[in-house]
Design a protein that fits this description.
Blueprint (H helix, E strand, L loop, with lengths): L8 H14 L2 H7 L7 E3 L5 E3 L1 H11 L7 E11 L2 E11 L8 E13 L2 E11 L18
Parallel strand pairs: 1-6
Antiparallel strand pairs: 1-2, 3-4, 4-5, 5-6
Helix pairs in contact: 1-2, 2-3
Protein name: Ketosteroid isomerase
Keywords: Isomerase
Pfam family, one: SnoaL_3
């Protein structure tokens, strides 16, 4: 089955966060470019380069199911062929009731390829200063 075609970086980003929510690693990888130079860096983790390494890292993360991620504070820089989205992710942490949410700053870079917009870089790091907030953030992206 051919990968989905994303007509805008926003379409690709919506599909990315929806795949995280549902825990669907295959749908998540449909968003990624197949270029060997793709890069994914998870918070406090190593750099994964290439589709196989990126796929393996996400399969490990999603092995126990989807992630409840709220996205806010979107900052965008773009041109006709590239879009850089920087967001604040609020991730619900069910296994740690004392820390209900983890906060992550993420940069997602999308390139326009022959088959639509594709994710080529996801770089996430702990969002220092947000960890004390217990209230969920308002969503700027709808995940459904």
């Amino acid at each position: 089955m051919p990968a989905a075609i994303f007509l805008s970086p926003e379409d690709a980003e919506h599909a990315y966060y929806e795949a995280l929510r549902t825990g669907d690693a295959d749908a998540l990888m449909d968003v990624w470019s197949e270029d060997e130079e793709v890069v994914c860096i998870h918070p406090s983790g190593p750099r994964h380069v290439g589709p196989a390494a990126v796929r393996s890292s996400w399969r490990q993360i999603l092995a126990n199911g989807g992630l409840q991620v709220s996205v806010s504070h979107l900052q965008v820089a773009n041109n006709p062929l590239c879009a850089v989205h920087n967001v604040l992710e609020q991730i619900q942490v069910e296994s740690h009731p004392e820390a209900r949410y983890a906060f992550v700053l993420a940069t997602n870079v999308y390139l326009k390829e022959a088959d639509g917009w594709r994710l080529v870089l996801h770089h996430a790091s702990p969002a220092i200063g947000h960890e004390d907030s217990a209230a969920p953030l308002a969503r700027t992206h709808h995940l459904h």
